[in-house]
What we know:
- This protein is of the alpha/beta class.
- Helix content is 49%, strand content 14%.
- Strands 3-2-1-4-5-6-7 form a seven-stranded parallel β-sheet, sandwiched between helices.
- Strand 2 (45-50), helix 3 and strand 3 (72-75) form a beta-alpha-beta unit.
- Helix 2 (30-41) runs parallel beside helix 3 and helix 4 runs parallel beside helix 5 (119-146).
- The longest helix has 28 residues, at 119-146.
- The chain is globular.
Amino acid sequence: MIKEEKKEMECEKEVENGRYIIVVSGVSKGIGRALALEFAKLGHIIVGCSRNQNQLDSLQHHLSTISSLTHLLIKVDVSSNDEVKVMAETVLQKVGSPHIIVNNAGVINENVKMWEGCVKEFDNVIDTNIKGTANVIRNFIPHMISNNKEGIIVNMSSIYGRTGAPQVSAYVCSKWGIEGLSKSLAKEVPNRITVVALDPGIINTDMLATHIGPHLASHYQTPQQWATKAASMIMNLSSSDNGTSLTVEDPGTLVFE
């Protein structure tokens, strides 16, 4: 109990210093990695998770070159509630309750008609994108609420969470789920906590290359270019944004050959 009170006092001190504890899932590559690096440059403490230890080690080294703070990166499969629960306990013990959560972990299915796709792959998309987001929220939000402080939860959506698209029905389904989850959660949390669904726009990532091919993907903004805009936007979210579906500025237009 004394340890918990001490950690809460340390957490409050970080806020006074303008320094926030920010959890980013799917942090090892793409926009998750870029966002973590951008937040670290701004002086915040990063707590990240991913299934790839080698990529986490690479990110840890990169963070050490741009920030003198201690950042916590943990190998976790967010689709496992048990693993996320252990992660949350570790974070609370070592760092404290987060001020911002960015639920970014996600996968996309191979381009295929819904009825021709692999059942296992469909399940993996749903388990990672929807259940993974729910697991992170479930295990962290009680502590955010008990701290009686303002907090932000950003659930990464997509343009495909607001429209339909052929050959990626599993992914589309998962992102519509994120939109619904975000709007429902926003009605359940205290007024001091803001929940939004955020369409990041179109970014040149491995996921986009899988969907439209690497040549077309290369014409879009890089994760680093995107992260500068996204970090500023997230930091400036307020209670008036609660329950909204937002899009990072200059999202781009998806074009297929």
